[in-house]
Fold:
Amino acid sequence: MGHQSEAVLEANLVRQLVKLEYEPVTIADDSWLEANLKTQLEKHNDFRMSESEFKRVLNHLNKGSVFEKAEILRDKFALPLDDGTSKYIEFLDSEHWCQNLFQVSSQISVEGKYKNRYDVTLLINGLPLVQIELKRRGLEIKEAFNQINRYQRHSYGSNNALFHYVQVFVISNGVNTKYYANNRKQSFKQTFFWADEQNKNITNLEAFTDTFLERCHISKMICKYIVLAQVPKILMILRPYQFYATEAIVDRVMNSEKNGYIWHTTGSGKTLTSFKTAQILTKLPHVEKVVFVVDRKDLDYQTTKEFNSFSDGSVDGTDNTKALVKQFGDDTKLIVTTIQKLNTAISKKQYLSQMEALREKHVVFIFDECHRSQFGDTHKAITHFFKKNQMMGFTGTPILEENNVGKRTTADLFVEALHKYVITDAIADDNVLKFSVEYVGKYKHKEGSATNIDIEVENINTKELLESPDRLEKISDYIIANHSRKTHAKEFTAMMCVGSVDMLTQYYEIFKSKKHSLKIATIFSYAVNEDDRDADGIYELDESDISWVDMESRANMESAPTHSRDKLESCIGDYNVMFGTKFTTRDSQSYYNYYNDISKKVRSREIDLLLVVNMFLTGFDSPTLNTLYVDKNLKYHGLIQAFSRTNRILNEKKSQGNIVCFRNLKENTDDAIALFSNKDAKESIIMQPYEEYVGYFDEAYEALLEIVPTVQSVDELRNQGEERQLAFVQAFRKLMR
Structure:
């Protein structure tokens, strides 16, 4: 089986698909494809078309791009008939996906710029919606991926361009099998293995076919789980864990009154999952409203923007509580809002009469980052007001018994995890990167190590030592000296989190006083300027915090501590000079705009280093950020959330998230990994220091030299027997790894 040919692989696949009740059909070329399409559409619509009528169908199908064709596929076409009347023609039954007509064909030939033959094609109602390209065992499946790219350039758009209707591509060499949506801009990194509900990948082609290509399943994936993202104009298909999470929530809402939550690690595509979940729930007849709740105003804006990028106009922003209450009263099915506005809507007298009608309606709430936003009186108020509420949550770091600090656990509020996809799963699937954690200072270092600088990282728990100018100066010097190396000569950006606003402003002034080329910015909440109470990196928002309240709460600004606000105003002044802006803390909207501008500039790499206390350590996604400097006590969910700002997939050059610790967080890191994955997961999440890898390389190199001390001695292995040759192969492999 090691060298099974492509032809045998193809024949076996077609046989298996026929057993799964696909109708086999021979299609030689475009003309055969069109003739078969006419027959299948007539069967599906129970209507016979004349040749001229079918030509009108072909003309309609030949319009637009791949994205526009995906829209045409899901719409009905008002076909003008020869007798002057019209009839609606359906190309795909999206509501009853199992009731479509399924066929399989192989070696369809299409001549465009060049003549190409496609391996295996699955047709639904006569349209080629799934294309499978195979390579013989032993070859990399990326060759099949590249071949599909070539077909997209050379022949898919030829003649009536019916192959532009392909929704899903499958590539396989028999041993490894992946799928992806028809998105011309997609890279090989955006191809996926299918998996079972426990996240075990199904890589073998035969097993993949039985599960993923089963008629009802592949049709369901096409009809329900491909998102036509409106702003980028691309097709996106859900990954297996996103599929299982969405299915679990929909099943819960349809068949139960219980709550539930999804535990999917940070960076695994929660926004797409929650959007698709919300979109499906809004179509359930017994669901009055679906309310997506975030706990910060910036996330309200960000989520609305992202949801609308998936489906333009699907969400109207709620700039204030009045707008929110209006949406609760009209026919808006999907609402995105903050927990603060929601609390105001159900607690202030002026809104109660308008909200009253929803008390007994089935309202489903989807809570973003449910590990933090539901603790407190607001959660109780929502459950008390909405008598038929149902709450679903998403989190990458739930509150469990071990990391619970006197509050209720996530399970206390949301009952149980409906699906889990933890950080080890995401790293194994190449959906997020590993972390490279360095402890800089006097902490178990070899002599001459680059990280051995003269600062203490152990037993430094007093404020005086932590904030001593000498210590902060040495750390600042280290960052200036090493920043270019960490960020690949500023190809990426960095963030630094520190323990308090006082410490942050000291660092800011030190950096400002030194000579360097770094563009440094900062932001902090000037209403909360004490040391972090839990020292865990989680920004537990108080609902009176002026940095995120609605404009109607602007009056609270006057109570902010003057010295903290003045420091921030000074920093914003520097920012204004650097970028020609006019932000200020004098009103909350300008401060909020400052926050948004920083977010954009970090993502676009216009800011080299962002200094924070708590802000940006959770809920902020920037694939261009690869380094986090830590001078702050982090633990459990706060540690994983903060570290995860760095591990988004971007390109080949970004190979890991860099974590540079100026405190001894080793035990906290091990505890957090054990809690949110398992105690044996450390090696699959944390990369060892660079010096360790150099040591491994040197050892492997020395071992290879013992077998073949010169290049010429490799040739001499031919006469030294299989055992010696095997030893060389194994030693060479070890070196290359």
